[in-house]
Amino acid sequence: VLVGLRCLAKGAFFSEVADTHGVSRSSVCRIIHGFVDAVINNVDNIKFPVQRDDQMSVKRGFYRKCKFPNIVGAVDGTLVPILAPTANEESFVCRKGFHAINCQAVASSDLRFIDIVAKWPGSSHDAGVFDNSVLKDYLEADLEAVLLGDSGYPLRRYLITPILHPSNERCLHRSGGVLPFSPGKSCRVFLACCKLHNLCIDNNMPLPDAIVCADDQGIQQNQEATRPGLTTRAQYIQLP
User: Fold this and answer.
1) Is 47:198 a contact under the CB 8 Å cutoff?
2) Which helix (DSSP H) or strand (DSSP E) does residue 16 occupy?
3) Which of 67-71's residues contact partners 24+ apart within 8 Å by CB, and which partners?
4) Nearest to 102 by CA among 118, 87, 84, 86
5) Torsions phi, psi for 195 (to 5 deg)
6) Which has more confidence, 66 or 57?
7) Are 58 and 108 spatial neighbours (Cβ–Cβ below 8 Å)?
8) Residue of 167, 156, 63, 72 lying closest to 112 (CA atoms)
9) 24 with 18: CB under 8 angstroms?
10) Radius of gyration of the chain (CA)
11) Among positive and negative, which fits the CA dihedral 83, 88, 94, 98?
C-alpha cells in the first residue's frame, strides 16, 4: 500500500521508490499495478447523483457557493501525458503536440469526483468525449440536472457554457512528466487516483494547495448551441 501510494502521489522513478522502501524495481512495477487494480475493484465512491435526495443535496451545495440553481457538477477534460504507445500512436497526439489520454471528469461543489470517463486518446475533443458518454444520455432524459462546462463544450439545456472565454485551471498538462504505462494502464491509474481523492475527502484529509496552470489558450472553442441551451443560459445570466 505504501509503495502504491508513493508512486501515485509523487510520480517518482520506480528505482527511487524501490530504494526508499527497500524493495527491487521489479517489485515496485508489480506492486503499482496490483495496487491500482485493488483500488478500482474495491473502492466504489464515484457515483453521479441520480436519486432525487442525492441530487438535491449536490444542487444545494452549488447554490450555496455560486447561487446557480439545478447545477449538479462541473465537467472538463484533462490531458494526461503518457509515453508514446506502439499501437495507433498518432491518435494519442493531443492538440498540444504530446502523447496523452483525454480524461473527462465531473466534480461537485465539494471537490468530489462524481463521474469519470478515462478511455479516450489525446486527439479526442472534449465535446466528442462528452457526446459519447453515458452521462450525456442521462442528462438528456433528466429535465432538471445541469452541468457547467467551458467553451470547448456545446451549449445545451443541460450543459451551460460561458459567453466569454475564461482562463482555465489545469493541473496535469505537462506539469510532472508522463505516466510510464500503456494507454489502457494509464487510464486505470487516472481512475484509481480519482477514487483515492474521494477517499481522502470521505476521511476529512486536508487537500493540497491547488496548482494553477494558465496554459490552455489552445482550447478548441465550440460554437454549437441549441435554442433551449441559449434560453437556459439567458435565465442564468438574469439571476440576481
Assistant:
1) no
2) helix 14-21
3) 67/239, 67/240, 68/148, 68/236, 68/239, 69/239, 70/144, 70/145, 70/146, 71/109, 71/146, 71/147, 71/148, 71/160
4) 118
5) -70, -40
6) 57
7) yes
8) 72
9) yes
10) 19
11) positive
Among candidates 61, 71, 86, which has minimal Cα distance to 233?
Answer: 71
Give the separation between CA 63 and CA 57, rounded to whole angstroms: 10
The residues facing 74 across adjacent strands are 107, 148
Task: Using DSSP, state whether 129 is helix, strand or coil.
Answer: helix
Give, for 134, the enclosing helix (H) or strand (E): helix 134-141
Q: Comparing C-alpha atoms, which of 165, 115, 107 is closest to residue 137?
A: 115
CA separation, residue 20 to residues 17, 30, 162, 191 (Å): 5, 16, 47, 25
Amino acid identity at 73: G
In the beta sheet, which residues pair with residue 158? Answer: none
Closest CA to 220 of 132, 133, 127: 127
User: What residue type is assigned to position 188 of the chain?
Assistant: R
Q: CB-based contacts of 202: which residues, under 8 Å, 6+ apart?
A: 45
Q: What is the pLDDT of residues 192-238, one digit of tens each?
A: 999 999 999 999 988 776 655 544 545 556 667 778 888 888 887 77
Confirm if 42 and 28 have CB atoms less than 8 A apart: no
Residue holding cell 478548441? 220
For the whole model, what pTM was predicted?
0.85
